[in-house]
Design goal:
Layout lengths: L5 H70 L2 H23 L9 H13 L5 H24 L7 H31 L12 E6 L3 E7 L9 E3 L6 E3 L2 H4 L3 E8 L15 H32 L3 H31 L20 E14 L5 E3 L2 E3 L22 H4 L3 E6 L11 E6 L4 E3 L3 E7 L4 E6 L4 E7 L8 E8 L2 E7 L3 E8 L2 E9 L2 E2 L11 H10 L21 H14 L3 E4 L12 E7 L13 E5 L4 E3 L23 H6 L4 H8 L3 H14 L6
Antiparallel strand pairs: 1-2, 2-5, 3-4, 4-9, 5-6, 6-14, 7-8, 9-13, 10-11, 10-14, 12-13, 15-16, 15-20, 16-17, 17-18, 18-19, 20-21, 21-22, 22-23
Helix pairs in contact: 2-14, 3-5, 4-5, 7-8, 8-11, 11-14
């Protein structure tokens, strides 16, 4: 078939259209390429200008770096000065105790403690009331020894002193419990004379600020009397028939303290760390002394008098001493923030991990005791048989059951305990029992646990009587949701930490701390700790004992997802924040989780006391790497993170000089007037909470 000639004529206009279309595309591509090249050139030019600007700012920062660091070192001399004042206070308290002559021993002197313990061991026939009264002094001595171990810097503690103090603590704890046992025996010998008229059994409750003692003696051995409730309390037991018909006594000694859990090891920096600190300090001191000596040489050219030279050299030596103390103090703080690589010990099955959990509300010492021979009146005398072996425990269930069905004949004992009113549980508490053989807490042998939070009553079944305690996750309030540090008055600030369950407000004034308020589930919660001023170490211990633990340890990162920051960066940030805290407010930033571990981001603003409270304060977003501080262009409401420098701002080597750029002269005067103990106390709380890593 032959195609007609008209078809090429029909396609011709389409070819022209396509050619025209292609030509237009090429023109548009050319224009787009030219536009892109122009925009790229403009972008590169802008980038070049920005880079030049940044290079100039970096050069300017490097140029004044030594000057800024020297000024910071002078300001940070307040930390060793505060340490010196604390050391003086410790010596002063020893002297005050010496001149008091009140008969109580100085817990730091081994001879006095040994004498006290020996004399108390020789005292016999003490009643429970007398032991409880004496226990106040004993507990005070134990508390003082623990504070010495916690408050004394690691480099001031010698190994022999640690062994001495911990040995005294253990001896006092053991002796105190022994005294309770002997006093219980004396009371049980008189059980028949103290019997209740209705039940015929003896029941006694002794309550004190440190202990609560419940004792029940089974004198009637009534098999139907199996439900035991102590008068005016919810505490009690449901005992099996075999115990209801036995010559026994039940004792519940609730100590509001914990003398069962092994003492925590005292952290001392390893020898290699000590040598590293020493070398670092020496290098820093040498560099500073070199800089100072150069200044002296220039001044000596102008002043040739020998007396003047001698004075300046003395100044240089003093400057070197200050530098050495400051740098040494910094390195010791940095070592405290280092995270442990692994757990300190291997856990057995059902063993409580004390790095993850904490005991709360003290210890409930549950004992089934053999009823001792009762005293009998005879011709105006009271005759009593005293057993040589003393108070004996009744074994339940017995070691040999002669093929009896143990579960039926020796069922678990139901226990009802009142939870200490000064302890907060954010979740239902768990129950743990003490394994005397393994020397640790375990969760086996306990069943049917139920907790009534409103009544603060916990009920559970226990296979055999032994010390029990309530435990809670130590990291239940970590990580934090937010935090804020705001000046309140001269040398006084308010630290607010918000967690999933609670909001804590802590006031820091000079060298003391106080719990200002606590909210649980957005409702104010009363606490015995409110309005009580304490030293930082005592305050932290008190909060932990109340269930308000916001203080991470070296192992906490193994149980909590954290925003890890390098220890040196954290320490530098906390120290400089503390220096500025009298005139500047600090606040958390969501961008702190985005930057890497060698940078921290937080908000800051000037906050003078005479200023009225601002509804929506204007915060400045700062990024600090330990060696450089800068103000960021973004803010909290920005959509994306960027490290771009804020317009018309510069780089600085310290936070102090960074805020100085936008701060008033009055604010900087307030900073320089800050009390050294106040700055050290604020720094201590910031280091203890580790807000930048755990928020």
């Amino acid at each position: 078939m032959v195609l007609p000639r008209a078809i090429p004529d029909i396609l011709e206009p389409k070819k022209k259209k396509i050619a025209h279309y292609l030509s237009e595309i090429q023109i548009h591509l050319k224009e787009a390429r030219v536009k892109y090249e122009k925009e790229e050139m403009e972008r590169l030019e802008i980038q070049r200008i920005e880079n030049e600007k940044l290079q100039k700012l970096e050069a300017k920062d490097l140029e004044r770096r030594n000057e800024e660091l020297e000024e910071l070192y002078l300001l940070e001399a307040c930390f060793p000065e505060a340490e010196k004042l604390k050391r003086d206070d410790r010596f002063l308290s020893q002297w005050k105790h010496y001149i008091q002559c009140d008969g109580s021993p100085d817990p730091s002197i081994a001879q006095e403690m040994n004498t006290f313990i020996t004399l108390w061991k020789e005292e016999t026939n003490e009643t429970l009331e007398e032991v409880i009264e004496k226990s106040k002094l004993v507990l005070n001595l134990i508390e003082k020894l623990k504070l010495i171990l916690l408050e004394t810097p690691p480099y001031d503690l010698q190994r022999k002193n640690i062994i001495q103090y911990q040995g005294s603590i253990l001896e006092l704890q053991e002796l105190l419990h022994l005294k309770f046992n002997r006093a219980t025996e004396i009371l049980l010998r008189q059980a028949s004379t103290l019997a209740d008229l209705d039940s015929g059994n003896m029941e006694k409750v002794i309550q004190d600020e440190n202990v609560t003692l419940y004792i029940w003696a089974n004198l009637k051995k009534n098999p139907r009397h199996r439900s035991i409730r102590f008068s005016e309390t919810q505490t009690g037991f449901e005992i099996p028939r075999i115990l209801a018909t036995s010559d026994i006594a039940l004792r519940l000694l609730h100590t509001h303290y914990d003398h069962v859990t092994p003492l925590s090891p005292v952290l001392k920096p390893p020898q290699e760390h000590v040598s590293l600190v020493t070398d670092f300090v020496r290098e820093e001191v040498k560099s500073v002394q070199t800089a100072v000596s150069k200044d002296l040489q220039e001044e000596n050219k102008q002043e040739n008098e020998s007396n003047s030279v001698h004075e300046e050299e003395t100044k240089a030596e003093e400057q070197g001493d200050v530098e050495e103390q400051t740098v040494g103090h910094f390195k010791s703080q940095e070592l405290l923030l280092e995270n442990a690589c692994e757990k300190p010990y291997f856990l057995e099955e059902d063993e409580v991990d004390l790095c993850q959990f904490t005991t709360l509300g003290g210890v409930y010492h549950l004992d089934i005791l053999e009823l001792p021979p009762q005293c009998k009146p005879m011709k105006g005398w009271m005759i009593v048989e005293i057993l040589k072996e003393g108070l004996q425990k009744y074994t339940y269930p017995p070691e040999t059951t002669e093929d009896l069905e143990t579960e039926n004949v020796f069922p678990p004992i139901e226990v009802m305990l009142e939870v200490h009113e000064n302890v907060i549980f954010f979740e239902n508490p768990m129950v743990a029992r003490w394994d005397a053989e393994g020397k640790h807490w375990k969760t086996d042998g306990i069943s049917n646990v139920s907790y009534k939070s409103e009544e603060r009553l916990i009920t559970f079944n226990l296979e055999t009587f032994c010390p029990v305690t309530l435990i809670q996750d130590a990291h239940i309030n970590m990580p934090f949701q937010s935090w804020e540090l705001i000046p309140l008055d001269v040398n006084k600030v308010l630290l607010t930490v918000t967690t999933v369950f609670t909001e804590l407000q802590i006031q820091i004034k000079e060298n003391l701390c106080m719990l200002a308020s606590i909210k649980v589930n957005n409702k104010k919660h009363p606490s015995i700790l409110e309005e009580k001023w304490m030293t930082p170490v005592s305050f932290i211990t008190a909060l932990k004992n109340a269930g308000l633990n916001i203080f991470p340890t070296g192992h906490s990162h193994l149980y909590v997802v954290i925003n890890y920051k390098h220890p040196s960066v954290e320490v530098k940030a906390y120290r400089q924040m503390a220096l500025l805290s009298s005139a500047f407010a600090f606040c958390w930033s969501k961008w702190n989780t985005v930057c890497d571990s060698k940078k921290t981001i937080f908000q800051v603003r000037e906050h003078l006391l005479k200023e009225e409270s601002i509804q929506n304060p204007n915060w400045t977003l700062l990024m600090f790497s330990g060696n450089r501080a800068q103000s960021l262009k973004i803010n909290e409401s920005s959509d994306a993170f960027s490290e771009v420098l804020k317009e018309e701002t510069e780089f600085h080597s310290t936070l102090y000089h960074m805020v100085k750029d936008f701060a008033s002269q009055e604010a900087m005067r307030e900073v320089r007037r800050s009390n050294c103990q106040f700055v050290d106390c604020v720094c201590h709380m910031l280091l203890s909470t580790r807000l930048l890593s755990y928020s």
